[in-house]
Design goal:
single chain, MetI-like fold, 2 domains, globular
Length: 298
Protein backbone atom coordinates (compact mmCIF):
# COMPACT_ATOMS: atom_id res chain seq x y z
CA UNK A 1 0.00 0.00 0.00
CA UNK A 2 1.37 3.40 -0.98
CA UNK A 3 2.19 5.79 1.83
CA UNK A 4 1.37 9.50 1.68
CA UNK A 5 4.29 11.88 1.71
CA UNK A 6 4.29 15.31 3.31
CA UNK A 7 5.39 18.19 1.10
CA UNK A 8 6.66 21.03 3.32
CA UNK A 9 6.63 23.56 0.49
CA UNK A 10 3.57 25.72 -0.02
CA UNK A 11 1.56 25.10 -3.16
CA UNK A 12 -0.94 27.15 -5.08
CA UNK A 13 -0.90 30.32 -7.08
CA UNK A 14 1.41 33.03 -5.79
CA UNK A 15 -0.20 36.44 -5.45
CA UNK A 16 0.85 38.78 -8.18
CA UNK A 17 1.08 42.52 -7.87
CA UNK A 18 -0.16 44.53 -4.89
CA UNK A 19 -3.16 43.27 -2.95
CA UNK A 20 -5.76 45.87 -2.09
CA UNK A 21 -6.35 44.34 1.35
CA UNK A 22 -2.65 44.54 2.25
CA UNK A 23 -2.50 48.16 1.16
CA UNK A 24 -5.51 48.97 3.33
CA UNK A 25 -3.95 47.15 6.28
CA UNK A 26 -0.68 49.08 6.07
CA UNK A 27 -2.56 52.34 5.58
CA UNK A 28 -4.60 51.68 8.69
CA UNK A 29 -1.48 50.84 10.73
CA UNK A 30 0.31 53.97 9.50
CA UNK A 31 -2.64 56.20 10.37
CA UNK A 32 -2.99 54.59 13.79
CA UNK A 33 0.72 55.08 14.53
CA UNK A 34 0.56 58.70 13.33
CA UNK A 35 -2.43 59.35 15.61
CA UNK A 36 -0.22 58.61 18.64
CA UNK A 37 3.20 59.68 17.37
CA UNK A 38 2.33 63.13 15.97
CA UNK A 39 1.16 64.65 19.28
CA UNK A 40 4.28 63.31 20.97
CA UNK A 41 6.45 64.75 18.20
CA UNK A 42 4.79 68.17 18.55
CA UNK A 43 5.33 68.12 22.30
CA UNK A 44 9.02 67.23 21.98
CA UNK A 45 9.89 69.81 19.31
CA UNK A 46 7.86 72.51 21.08
CA UNK A 47 9.72 71.90 24.34
CA UNK A 48 13.02 72.76 22.62
CA UNK A 49 11.77 75.93 20.91
CA UNK A 50 11.80 79.50 22.11
CA UNK A 51 8.52 81.37 22.43
CA UNK A 52 9.23 83.47 19.31
CA UNK A 53 9.32 80.28 17.20
CA UNK A 54 6.17 78.96 18.83
CA UNK A 55 4.27 82.16 18.06
CA UNK A 56 4.96 81.62 14.34
CA UNK A 57 2.52 78.71 14.45
CA UNK A 58 4.68 76.19 12.58
CA UNK A 59 4.21 73.43 15.13
CA UNK A 60 5.59 70.63 12.94
CA UNK A 61 8.88 72.35 12.10
CA UNK A 62 12.03 71.36 13.95
CA UNK A 63 13.48 74.03 16.25
CA UNK A 64 16.06 76.28 14.62
CA UNK A 65 18.28 75.86 17.68
CA UNK A 66 17.89 73.41 20.52
CA UNK A 67 17.15 75.23 23.76
CA UNK A 68 16.90 73.41 27.09
CA UNK A 69 15.86 76.45 29.11
CA UNK A 70 12.25 75.26 29.09
CA UNK A 71 13.30 71.92 30.58
CA UNK A 72 15.28 73.65 33.34
CA UNK A 73 12.36 75.91 34.12
CA UNK A 74 9.89 73.02 34.13
CA UNK A 75 12.05 71.07 36.55
CA UNK A 76 13.13 73.70 39.05
CA UNK A 77 12.06 77.31 38.48
CA UNK A 78 8.66 77.61 36.80
CA UNK A 79 5.84 79.05 38.90
CA UNK A 80 2.66 77.22 39.71
CA UNK A 81 -0.28 78.50 41.71
CA UNK A 82 1.71 78.89 44.92
CA UNK A 83 5.42 78.16 44.44
CA UNK A 84 8.13 78.66 41.82
CA UNK A 85 10.01 75.39 42.17
CA UNK A 86 8.89 73.59 39.01
CA UNK A 87 7.87 69.96 39.34
CA UNK A 88 11.01 68.66 41.06
CA UNK A 89 9.38 68.56 44.48
CA UNK A 90 6.33 66.85 43.04
CA UNK A 91 8.58 64.30 41.35
CA UNK A 92 10.11 63.16 44.64
CA UNK A 93 6.72 63.21 46.34
CA UNK A 94 5.41 60.94 43.58
CA UNK A 95 8.35 58.57 44.09
CA UNK A 96 7.67 58.44 47.85
CA UNK A 97 4.00 57.69 47.17
CA UNK A 98 4.18 55.39 44.16
CA UNK A 99 6.92 52.97 45.18
CA UNK A 100 5.56 51.86 48.58
CA UNK A 101 1.91 51.98 47.44
CA UNK A 102 2.71 49.78 44.43
CA UNK A 103 4.74 47.24 46.41
CA UNK A 104 2.22 46.99 49.25
CA UNK A 105 -0.86 46.75 47.02
CA UNK A 106 0.70 44.09 44.77
CA UNK A 107 1.88 41.97 47.71
CA UNK A 108 -1.48 42.19 49.48
CA UNK A 109 -3.30 41.36 46.24
CA UNK A 110 -1.04 38.34 45.67
CA UNK A 111 -1.56 37.18 49.26
CA UNK A 112 -5.35 37.55 49.22
CA UNK A 113 -5.56 35.92 45.79
CA UNK A 114 -3.52 32.99 47.15
CA UNK A 115 -5.89 32.58 50.09
CA UNK A 116 -9.02 32.72 47.93
CA UNK A 117 -7.60 30.27 45.38
CA UNK A 118 -6.13 27.53 47.62
CA UNK A 119 -7.16 27.82 51.25
CA UNK A 120 -10.70 28.99 50.46
CA UNK A 121 -12.05 29.98 53.88
CA UNK A 122 -15.78 29.91 54.51
CA UNK A 123 -17.50 32.50 52.34
CA UNK A 124 -14.46 32.95 50.07
CA UNK A 125 -16.54 33.21 46.91
CA UNK A 126 -18.84 35.78 48.49
CA UNK A 127 -15.85 37.80 49.71
CA UNK A 128 -14.27 37.67 46.26
CA UNK A 129 -17.52 38.85 44.69
CA UNK A 130 -17.71 41.79 47.10
CA UNK A 131 -14.10 42.77 46.37
CA UNK A 132 -14.67 42.66 42.61
CA UNK A 133 -17.96 44.56 42.95
CA UNK A 134 -16.17 47.31 44.90
CA UNK A 135 -13.89 47.81 41.92
CA UNK A 136 -16.84 48.85 39.75
CA UNK A 137 -18.07 51.54 42.14
CA UNK A 138 -16.87 55.02 41.06
CA UNK A 139 -13.93 56.21 43.10
CA UNK A 140 -15.55 59.58 43.75
CA UNK A 141 -18.23 57.90 45.88
CA UNK A 142 -15.62 56.94 48.49
CA UNK A 143 -13.72 60.23 48.63
CA UNK A 144 -15.76 62.12 51.24
CA UNK A 145 -16.17 59.29 53.79
CA UNK A 146 -12.50 58.38 53.34
CA UNK A 147 -11.49 61.99 54.05
CA UNK A 148 -13.49 61.90 57.29
CA UNK A 149 -11.90 58.61 58.35
CA UNK A 150 -8.36 59.76 57.50
CA UNK A 151 -8.93 63.05 59.36
CA UNK A 152 -10.26 61.15 62.39
CA UNK A 153 -6.93 59.29 62.65
CA UNK A 154 -5.01 62.57 62.19
CA UNK A 155 -3.38 61.42 58.94
CA UNK A 156 -4.90 63.94 56.55
CA UNK A 157 -2.33 65.85 54.48
CA UNK A 158 0.44 63.28 54.95
CA UNK A 159 2.20 60.92 52.57
CA UNK A 160 0.97 58.01 54.67
CA UNK A 161 -2.63 59.01 53.94
CA UNK A 162 -2.07 59.04 50.17
CA UNK A 163 -0.25 55.70 50.26
CA UNK A 164 -3.01 54.15 52.37
CA UNK A 165 -5.88 55.22 50.11
CA UNK A 166 -4.01 54.09 47.00
CA UNK A 167 -3.48 50.66 48.54
CA UNK A 168 -7.11 50.34 49.59
CA UNK A 169 -8.59 51.47 46.29
CA UNK A 170 -6.27 49.23 44.25
CA UNK A 171 -7.08 45.97 46.02
CA UNK A 172 -10.03 44.96 43.78
CA UNK A 173 -7.81 44.97 40.70
CA UNK A 174 -4.80 43.23 42.25
CA UNK A 175 -6.90 40.57 43.98
CA UNK A 176 -8.76 39.85 40.74
CA UNK A 177 -5.53 39.51 38.76
CA UNK A 178 -3.83 37.13 41.19
CA UNK A 179 -6.89 35.10 42.04
CA UNK A 180 -7.50 34.35 38.36
CA UNK A 181 -3.81 33.60 37.84
CA UNK A 182 -3.62 31.16 40.76
CA UNK A 183 -6.91 29.52 39.77
CA UNK A 184 -5.15 27.74 36.87
CA UNK A 185 -2.26 26.44 38.98
CA UNK A 186 -2.75 22.66 39.49
CA UNK A 187 -4.16 22.05 42.95
CA UNK A 188 -2.07 18.86 43.19
CA UNK A 189 1.04 21.06 43.36
CA UNK A 190 -0.39 22.80 46.40
CA UNK A 191 -1.34 19.50 48.02
CA UNK A 192 2.14 18.07 47.38
CA UNK A 193 3.70 21.04 49.15
CA UNK A 194 1.45 20.49 52.16
CA UNK A 195 2.33 16.79 52.25
CA UNK A 196 6.01 17.74 52.25
CA UNK A 197 5.40 19.77 55.38
CA UNK A 198 5.20 23.31 53.97
CA UNK A 199 2.86 25.60 55.83
CA UNK A 200 0.66 28.53 54.92
CA UNK A 201 3.41 31.16 54.68
CA UNK A 202 6.10 28.82 53.30
CA UNK A 203 3.91 27.75 50.36
CA UNK A 204 3.16 31.36 49.48
CA UNK A 205 6.71 32.71 49.54
CA UNK A 206 8.56 29.61 48.29
CA UNK A 207 6.11 28.27 45.71
CA UNK A 208 3.25 30.53 44.66
CA UNK A 209 4.98 33.90 44.63
CA UNK A 210 7.92 32.74 42.44
CA UNK A 211 5.44 31.12 40.03
CA UNK A 212 3.56 34.42 39.72
CA UNK A 213 6.49 36.59 38.62
CA UNK A 214 4.88 37.48 35.23
CA UNK A 215 1.70 38.53 37.01
CA UNK A 216 3.72 40.45 39.60
CA UNK A 217 5.21 42.48 36.75
CA UNK A 218 1.79 43.07 35.16
CA UNK A 219 0.13 44.11 38.42
CA UNK A 220 3.15 46.21 39.39
CA UNK A 221 3.19 48.11 36.11
CA UNK A 222 -0.56 48.69 36.15
CA UNK A 223 -0.41 49.94 39.73
CA UNK A 224 2.69 52.04 39.15
CA UNK A 225 1.14 53.72 36.13
CA UNK A 226 -2.20 54.35 37.84
CA UNK A 227 -0.67 55.75 41.04
CA UNK A 228 1.96 57.85 39.28
CA UNK A 229 -0.65 59.42 36.98
CA UNK A 230 -3.25 59.92 39.72
CA UNK A 231 -4.55 63.43 40.22
CA UNK A 232 -7.70 63.15 42.33
CA UNK A 233 -6.36 61.28 45.36
CA UNK A 234 -3.14 63.29 45.42
CA UNK A 235 -5.03 66.56 45.30
CA UNK A 236 -7.52 65.56 48.02
CA UNK A 237 -5.34 63.69 50.53
CA UNK A 238 -1.75 64.93 50.11
CA UNK A 239 -2.11 68.49 51.34
CA UNK A 240 0.04 71.40 50.13
CA UNK A 241 3.38 70.01 51.30
CA UNK A 242 3.10 66.57 49.70
CA UNK A 243 1.52 67.25 46.34
CA UNK A 244 2.49 64.61 43.75
CA UNK A 245 3.81 65.38 40.29
CA UNK A 246 0.45 65.37 38.51
CA UNK A 247 -0.99 67.98 40.87
CA UNK A 248 1.99 70.28 40.43
CA UNK A 249 1.84 69.77 36.66
CA UNK A 250 -1.79 70.89 36.72
CA UNK A 251 -0.80 73.96 38.74
CA UNK A 252 1.91 74.88 36.23
CA UNK A 253 -0.20 74.34 33.10
CA UNK A 254 -3.26 76.15 34.45
CA UNK A 255 -1.52 79.31 35.64
CA UNK A 256 -3.78 82.22 34.68
CA UNK A 257 -1.34 85.15 34.95
CA UNK A 258 1.34 86.20 32.48
CA UNK A 259 2.14 84.65 29.12
CA UNK A 260 1.45 80.95 28.62
CA UNK A 261 4.84 79.25 28.32
CA UNK A 262 3.95 76.44 25.94
CA UNK A 263 7.51 75.15 25.76
CA UNK A 264 7.70 74.88 29.55
CA UNK A 265 4.31 73.19 29.70
CA UNK A 266 5.37 70.62 27.11
CA UNK A 267 8.65 69.95 28.91
CA UNK A 268 6.88 69.52 32.25
CA UNK A 269 4.38 67.10 30.69
CA UNK A 270 7.17 65.03 29.13
CA UNK A 271 9.06 64.91 32.42
CA UNK A 272 5.91 63.68 34.15
CA UNK A 273 5.33 60.94 31.56
CA UNK A 274 8.97 59.84 31.32
CA UNK A 275 9.01 57.52 34.34
CA UNK A 276 5.99 55.31 33.38
CA UNK A 277 7.25 55.11 29.81
CA UNK A 278 10.69 54.05 31.02
CA UNK A 279 9.13 51.40 33.25
CA UNK A 280 7.19 49.95 30.31
CA UNK A 281 10.26 49.92 28.06
CA UNK A 282 12.41 48.20 30.70
CA UNK A 283 9.91 45.47 31.59
CA UNK A 284 7.88 45.27 28.39
CA UNK A 285 8.83 41.64 27.69
CA UNK A 286 7.70 40.51 31.12
CA UNK A 287 4.54 42.60 30.85
CA UNK A 288 3.51 40.95 27.57
CA UNK A 289 4.31 37.52 28.99
CA UNK A 290 2.22 38.16 32.09
CA UNK A 291 -0.71 39.55 30.12
CA UNK A 292 -0.63 36.51 27.83
CA UNK A 293 -0.43 34.10 30.74
CA UNK A 294 -3.26 35.85 32.54
CA UNK A 295 -5.42 35.79 29.43
CA UNK A 296 -4.86 32.07 28.91
CA UNK A 297 -5.18 31.10 32.55
CA UNK A 298 -7.94 33.49 33.55
Amino acid sequence: MATATFNPEATGRKPGGIELGRVGLYLFLILTAAFFVLPLYVMVVTSFKEMDEIRDGQIFLLPQTLHIDAWRAAWSTDCGLETCSGISQGFWNSVKITVPATVISVLIGAFVGYILSFWKPKGANVLFGIIVLAGFIPLQVFVYPTVRIIAFFDLYGTLSAVILVHVLFSLPLTVLLFRNYYAAVPHDLFQAARIDGAGFIRIFFSLMLPMAIPMLVVAGLLQFNAIWNDFLLGMVFAGRDNQPMMVQLNNIVNVTFGEVQYNVNMAATLLTAAVPLLAYFVSGRWFVRGITAGAVKG
